[in-house]
Fold each of these.
Amino acid sequence: MNEIIEAIKKSAIVIKELIETGDTDKSSSENSTGDTQLKLDIACDVIIEDIFRELHCVKEIVSEEQDDIVKVNENGKFLIAYDPLDGSSLVDVNLSVGSIFGIYENDFSGKNIVASVYVVFGPRVEMVVSFEDSVKMYRLHKDKFVFIQDLKLNEKGKLNAPGSTQNCWAPHHKQLIDDIFSDGYRLRYSGGMVPDLHQILIKGGGLFSYPGTTDRPTGKLRQLFEVFPFAHVYENAGGQAIDGNKRVLEVPTQHIHDTSPCFFGSNEEINRVLEVYSQNA
Ligand code: AFP
């Protein structure tokens, strides 16, 4: 695992440089989910793939930017699913973005995720590692990641990050979000999953939701590259991650690019979601 974390640190230092100086134009290609890829998405993907290909402990990798699984070492132990630059469309407006990594054993499924890592590229570069029973945050100082703190969620927070567009929400979801705001929660949503979830984690709690909607019944966020890695982080930090009705890590994956509705947060907010969704199943 150490080898993988060191490789991610190496990729983050190169990607930071690329975000600062690289081209934010669109490329002529689309990824598997039909998003037009930016030149930056493709460049970050290549950086990470090249670094992972050097690791003996890695059996297979799969990127959000690629259609298929890439085989690395037949005798490797770990499988890695990664989103090289989530929220890349925010780079041109200079908002924070991130890389996400889910580390799996045996197969790419929620029940087999064993660790996850994300890197936030904002005014500072920070890396969060969820492994065994801890969630640890590091910060890039010059060219070294320095340990800053362990992360733990409170039972209840103050922030609400509701994803997608309101005209596509189910009525019970809209009611839930309205009620949460009526109870005094503050809106904090940048449109970048990594900084939005990082903020809730650092500030101690709240709710991030990306539900199934009329235009996307199984949500937008991808299980292997986005949802499962953050579910690992949130559960390990003492919070919860659900699909509305159950732990999202129990949702089966039929295809590597499957999406799932998802809710991440501290216990009080997630219990509230469970109550509303169980009455509207
Ligand atoms: P992009 O990678 O297309 O910028 O999408 C970012 C993202 O996948 C995730 O980071 C956000 O949480 C989510 O989309 C925002 O989606 P909405 O704009 O539909 O709320």
Amino acid sequence: MTVVGARPQFIKAGAVNRAIQEFNKKKGRIREIWVHTGQHYDYLMDKVFFEELKLPKPDYHLEVGSGSHGEQTGLMLERVERVLKNEKPETVIIYGDTNSTLAGALAAAKLNIPVGHVEAGLRSYNSAMPEEINRLLTDHLSTFLFCPTDQAVINLLKEGIKDGRARIVKNVGDVMYDSILYYSKLAEKRSTILKELGFFTPNSGRAIHESPLHRTPNYYLVTLHRAENTDDPKRLKSILKALNEIGRNTPTVLPLHPRTKKMMKVYHLFRGFKNIKFIEPVSYFDMLKLEKNARAILTDSGGIQKEAYWFRVPCLTLREETEWVETIKGGWNVLTGAKVKRIVGR
Ligand code: UD1
Ligand code: UDP
């Protein structure tokens, strides 16, 4: 049983679903049941991915929606447990580090159903992050720890979680990488987002903003949604100021996560940033196209730091630390935090 609920999980579970289908065509008989917790529900945060990536229609939709951590996780726990009791799956697979991840893992572990965690072993060592709490607990509840990197395996070892009789802990690679390998050419062909945003003239295919020396589109792509940035008015304002400054000379596009939109309203931060091009969240194909062609990416997203790295697009991470330390070591990612000078200076 696959338990998903948030945008990045649809993409990750999609890659595994494809592998299961391939396996079933040749020699297997794996039955996969999809449970959608309902954590994300706006069309552009949810259905667009099911349609574009042709994901299976969830067998169960738990319609939990938004709420405080306790409310949301508690409701999920109750409803996932009911499904588990009904279906009695052999294994529950959960992805990443959201509240849907923790609820799926906890509900299964309490019923003695083995849990498989895809993206196990990541650590920011910042316990103020809700995601860090979710990861830590989920890993300790899991039997199959599918790590995306060697560092993740080492992180688990430090906590006494190791490959052996009781548990399987392996670096299996990154399912998000599988996903971009599979989709990036298709996205390049299908997505018309650059044209829609005016980054290309309609006929020539050349970028409007390119200088004679640059024949590639010239824009910065930004995403911003981490609670540590959006729910702290000082940090949020500072990041927006920096983006506005950058946007003065180079188009700067920001597909706005609903959490960020909500907090910008709460803190009255919609005025004064006219150099930032705010747009609705985009589909996966549009995102891949935007990432691949950007001059640089500024983000606090986990998944987007990796995608920037795989596309070899320079990345500025608007955080103080990252779980994806390899991207920093590789020289493609720098941590800027939220201060205007540090962001613009880069
Ligand atoms: C969640 C994950 C985060 C992940 C992100 C991916 C947790 C604790 N956080 O953060 O790790 O990086 O998803 O995008 O699980 N909202 C809508 N429409 C939606 C979804 C959310 O309007 O479809 C708004 C609601 O006001 C909600 C807020 O966004 O309260 C936050 O949503 P929530 O799912 O709690 O957390 P995310 O910030 O999306
Ligand atoms: N993504 C997308 N459209 C958007 C923003 C993100 O398709 O408007 C994709 C992105 O390409 C990546 C994943 O969603 O594959 C990352 O999700 P997100 O940033 O919401 O969460 P995180 O990875 O930080 O948990």
